[in-house]
Amino acid sequence: MDGKRIRTFGSTGSQNSQFRNPYHVTVDARDNIIVSDSGNSCVKVFDSSGRFRFCATDPVRKTSIDCALGGGGCGLGGGERTVARRRKLRGPRGVTVDLRGNILVADDCCRVCMFDSNGRFVRNLLTEEDSVKFPEAVHCSRLGLLAVTEWNPNNMFAVKVFNMYE
Question: What is the pTM of this model?
Answer without folding.
Answer: 0.82
